[in-house]
Write a structure and sequence with these properties.
The complex is a heterotrimer of chains A (202), B (138) and C (564).
Chain A lengths: L16 H30 L2 H6 L4 H26 L3 H31 L7 H5 L3 H34 L7 H26 L2
Helix pairs in contact in A: 1-7, 3-4, 3-7, 4-6, 6-7
Chain B lengths: L3 E3 L3 H9 L16 E4 L1 H4 L6 H21 L2 H23 L7 H25 L11
Antiparallel strand pairs in B: 1-2
Helix pairs in contact in B: 3-4
Chain C lengths: L9 H6 L4 H31 L13 H36 L8 H20 L22 H4 L4 H5 L2 H29 L12 H16 L1 H15 L13 H35 L6 H15 L14 H29 L8 H24 L1 H7 L3 H31 L5 H27 L20 H30 L59
Helix pairs in contact in C: 2-3, 2-4, 2-17, 3-7, 3-8, 3-10, 3-15, 4-7, 7-8, 7-9, 8-10, 8-11, 9-10, 10-11, 10-15, 11-12, 12-13, 13-15, 13-16, 15-16, 16-17
Classes of the chains: A mainly alpha (202), B mainly alpha (138), C mainly alpha (564).
């Protein structure tokens, strides 16, 4: 006897459940990052000295990472297109490209961090503090927490994409390609804002 | 109302139980795995040209990188943030399909922006517009 | 596989259940346990305030550091581990699917995860008492530089700093916020997508509207705090300088981001209880709710305003005085939508045929007490008065006159109201009335006199007032003692409730399906509702408050009755 409720409901907002939940999650994450970017901006305007600190970031790698993320956003949206056409194999191909983009982003980031750490610019920058440049050390604290939190989200997004790739092998749950793609776009969005703030504004 | 593409035989079984109609099985119903995908004809009203959007995004990125070399600092900053905002809007509208979503979603995202602005302007006088030097050697 | 048909083990049925009713119950029980802990902490420091220097029964001697820690954790527990889980999670989880005619939440597994993350957060909080150094004692607001000292004080040792009271508290709060965020997403998606056929937006009961508005306010205001909490944690365990003025950071940044969330948070706590009132008042006056749509618009207006008034907690912190004017005006304005809601409640009562059952007693008690809290809030909203009253017991009395009715009277009203549905049994009404009156009297005994102490200049968060000559003499010391005795009475009274709760569960007499003769959909389900809630699922034909319709014989018409 069928006693489960069926969707004889009228979803008034006309948006499927998963997408709605994803938008709400994205809105919540944007407030978190928006807050962090706000704190950075407030301090950046207050301390022109941060411009000199920002000169030590590697604009080339930053721009390269931006291109990589934009391309990976493109590939995940192509995966979504393939999923709409019920082509699971093609979707997985595009998703693999996205994962490669994510890996490249993280590798670039690691190279960049290694270089900056070797120059003494770390999360707490004890060398700068010892030299009396307290305000400059605060720039690096913000730099690492912002890019670090973003990097953690890149990793989480890659994990989610990988899990969904496994789930769509038999052609089931293809709607999840779009959902995980939306999360990946959010990660890209945040980087689009982080890049000028940390790298260009000198 | 959004309709789902169901695996063969499922539609017939649901119609036997409930009469004719279009069904989207609930998330935790046993038929949920039988959804293949939302019907694209009724789900989105078309899709944007993703390739063109990508080229536009890369062009905007190049513009913002060059701006620092061509323009004066003030204009360059304004241009850089304007292009960043434009890129964000393009990604949201096209890749995340925000322009095909109901108005509700756009309001939610716009509300996020408003809230961040409210925080920024509320805090600005106390954190940024400080004139004295608060740091001194330990 | 259909959940109804496959056998569930003890673990999947009771512990890791995905059924919204079980999860709601788990949140409620956890909240009640934490309320016991928070109440015990309050008992200890209240005893110390009334009888300084004496050994406290069931505790011992209370040192200054322990006093600070108890005051801090009492506040933390009551807001985050009692208010939020009981009012938002328990009510939301239990009621939303039932009142919108659905079988469960939109994401049952996420729901289960959110409870267990919450449970872990409570354990982390309690663990902070037992680490070296004890629990954090710097006030529930965790202001730096005091809260950022971990790295400095414990001479840089990452693990010592990580397992200190401060860091554990920050971690506990972060986990709790994550659990509530997950719950909030669930509530919104369920309410939007899983309503019964015929339930349009304007037929949704007010409590469901309010819980969702509260979830939205919460999600949009907690962002900066989550980011800022990470920064505070790193200040403690790694020695960064986010809030350290020596390093260019700013303690004021923490104050702003904390209160940017902290103020909307009180409305997040308030709205579900107002929703409970909106459900109870029409039922027990046999009248439709007055101005249903207006109440919703007012709540939306207050939600909008609530994110614009946060710095009224910082009037004396050194903020720009011009901003203080702006925040002061906003604070006074925000009383208007809430006053409107209360007027609508009173209009609902006006001319109704009142049934003075136990839920109604709690609801009316709420209104009376909250009025005192709300009016004193207007005083504090004016920045000039606040310069005098800030950090005194006037503030303490104000927020207890708002939060205690909100959390406790709201909870008890809802509990006595929905208990027959929740358990299929009835609570003893005489014990319920005794519980109400004793709670009401003792509560006023604790906090009313503290207004006067505050106006006399008694500052809060001080464990020993013997060097304050004005405060430690009469009548203020007597007021403290009366407050403590009443506090003990208040806590002992709750055992009447516990006895009523447990003994009623063990009764054999079953309650009728709709003992209060209410119109909303949850009363259509069996008592207690089975897995899947309804068989068959109801369809909705009318709004939620069709009481005493002129052309109908019954004095109430449930939502699922078609129009004749």
């Amino acid at each position: 006897m069928e006693t489960k409720q069926h969707h004889l409901t009228i979803p008034v907002i006309k948006i499927p459940q998963g997408r709605l939940a994803m938008w709400v999650l994205i809105a919540g994450e944007l407030v978190i990052f928006g807050g962090l970017i706000c704190f950075y901006l407030l301090n950046r305007i207050r301390y022109p000295h941060w411009g000199e600190m920002a000169a030590h970031t590697n604009t080339f790698i930053g721009a390269l990472n931006t291109v990589v993320l934009l391309l990976s956003s493109y590939t995940i949206v192509r995966a979504h297109q393939a999923a709409i056409k019920l082509n699971a194999a093609k979707a997985r191909l595009w998703m693999t490209c996205t994962l490669l983009g994510g890996v490249m982003f993280l590798v670039d980031k690691s190279i960049e961090y290694a270089h900056e750490i070797s120059e003494g610019f770390t999360f707490t920058s004890p060398k700068l503090v010892a030299a009396g440049d307290h305000v400059g050390s605060l720039f690096w604290s913000y730099y690492y927490i912002m890019t670090g939190l973003h990097g953690a989200h890149v990793l989480a997004g890659m994990t989610a994409i990988f899990i969904v790739m496994m789930q769509i092998r038999k052609g089931n749950n293809l709607h999840r390609v779009e959902l995980v793609g939306m999360y990946w776009h959010m990660v890209d969005l945040i980087w689009i804002f982080l890049f000028p703030l940390l790298y260009i504004a000198k | 109302m959004e309709t789902a593409i169901l695996k063969p035989g499922i539609q017939a079984r649901l119609e036997d139980a409930h009469g004719p109609g279009n069904f989207t099985p609930a998330h935790n119903s046993p038929d949920h795995d039988n959804i293949v995908f939302a019907d694209p004809a009724t789900d989105y009203h078309g899709h944007p040209q993703y390739g063109k959007v990508l080229i536009a995004l890369l062009a905007l990125l190049s513009l913002s990188l060059l701006a620092g070399y061509i323009f004066s600092p003030g204009i360059a900053i304004a241009l850089i943030f304007a292009t960043a905002t434009w890129k964000v809007a393009m990604v949201m509208r096209n890749f995340m399909h925000l322009k095909y979503e109901p108005l509700f979603v756009f309001i939610a995202v716009a509300a996020v922006m408003l809230i961040i602005f409210a925080f920024f302007f509320g805090v600005y006088p106390d954190i940024t517009a400080v004139t004295h030097d608060v740091t001194y050697p330990h | 596989m259909e959940n109804i048909h496959h056998k569930q083990s003890f673990w999947s049925k009771y512990i890791f259940s995905t059924d919204h009713k079980t999860i709601g119950t788990q949140y409620m029980i956890m909240g009640m346990i934490m309320a016991g802990v928070g109440g015990y902490l309050a008992y200890v420091f209240r005893y110390n305030l009334a009888f300084p220097g004496k050994s406290i029964p069931f505790y011992g001697m209370l040192g200054p550091q322990a006093y600070n820690a108890f005051v801090t954790i009492h506040g933390m527990i009551m807001v985050f581990w009692v208010g939020m889980p009981v009012l938002l999670s328990a009510f939301g989880n239990y009621l939303i699917p039932l009142m919108i005619g659905s079988d469960d939440m939109a994401f049952p597994t996420v729901n289960m995860l959110s409870f267990w993350i919450f449970a872990v957060s409570a354990l982390v909080l309690l663990a902070s008492f037992f680490v070296p150094g004890g629990a954090f004692g710097g006030g529930w607001t965790m202001y730096p530089p005091f809260s950022a000292q971990g790295y400095v004080n414990l001479n840089p040792n990452f693990f010592q700093a990580l397992f200190s009271g401060t860091s554990l508290l920050i971690l506990a709060v972060a986990l709790e916020l994550v659990a509530m965020l997950m719950g909030g997403i669930n509530f919104l998606v369920t309410t939007i997508n899983k309503r019964a056929k015929g339930m349009t937006a304007w037929r949704i009961p007010i409590i469901i509207w309010f819980i969702n508005i509260a979830a939205v306010i919460f999600m949009f205001s907690v962002g900066p705090l989550v980011a800022g909490a990470f920064m505070l944690l790193f200040d403690n365990i790694l020695g960064t300088g986010f809030y350290d003025p020596h390093r260019g950071g700013d303690p004021m940044l923490w104050e702003h981001l904390f209160w940017f969330f902290g103020h909307p948070e009180v409305y997040v706590l308030l709205l579900p209880s107002l929703g409970v009132l909106a459900e109870i008042l029409p039922v027990f006056s046999r009248k439709p709710l007055f101005a249903y749509k207006t109440i919703i618009y007012l709540a939306l207006a207050s939600a909008f305003l609530s994110v614009l008034v946060w710095a009224h907690h910082q009037f004396v912190a050194g903020i720009d005085p011009r901003m203080a004017t702006f925040f002061s005006i906003g604070t006074i304005l925000i009383s208007i939508p809430f006053a409107g809601i209360f007027l609508a409640f009173m209009a609902t009562l006006w001319g109704g045929s009142i049934r003075m059952k136990v839920p109604m007693l709690w609801a009316i008690g709420f209104i009376g007490l909250f009025l005192v809290g709300g009016l004193t809030g207007l005083f504090l909203g004016s920045n000039t008065f606040d310069i005098y009253a800030h950090d005194t017991y006037f503030v303490v009395a104000h927020f207890h006159y708002t939060l205690f009715p909100d959390i406790f009277f709201g909870f008890f009203a809802a509990f006595y109201y929905w208990f027959p549905k929740f358990s299929g049994k009835e609570l003893n009404a005489s014990l319920g009335k005794l519980h109400f009156w004793l709670t009401f009297i003792f509560f006023n005994g604790v906090f009313f006199l503290l207004f006067f102490n505050g106006l006399a200049g008694q500052h809060r968060r001080i464990n020993d007032y013997s060097s304050f000559s004005l405060i430690s003499k009469e009548p203020y010391q007597t007021f403290e003692q009366i407050a403590t005795v009443c506090a003990i009475g208040l806590m002992l009274t709750q055992f009447i409730f516990l006895y009523n709760f447990i003994s009623s569960l063990r009764k054999t007499k079953k309650a009728v399906k709709n003992p209060w003769e209410a119109t909303t959909l949850e009363w259509v389900a069996d008592s207690p509702p089975p897995h899947g809630n309804f068989n068959p699922y109801p369809e909705v034909y009318r709004g939620a408050y069709d009481y005493s319709l002129p052309d109908v014989e019954d004095d109430f018409t449930p939502q699922n009755i078609p129009k004749v």
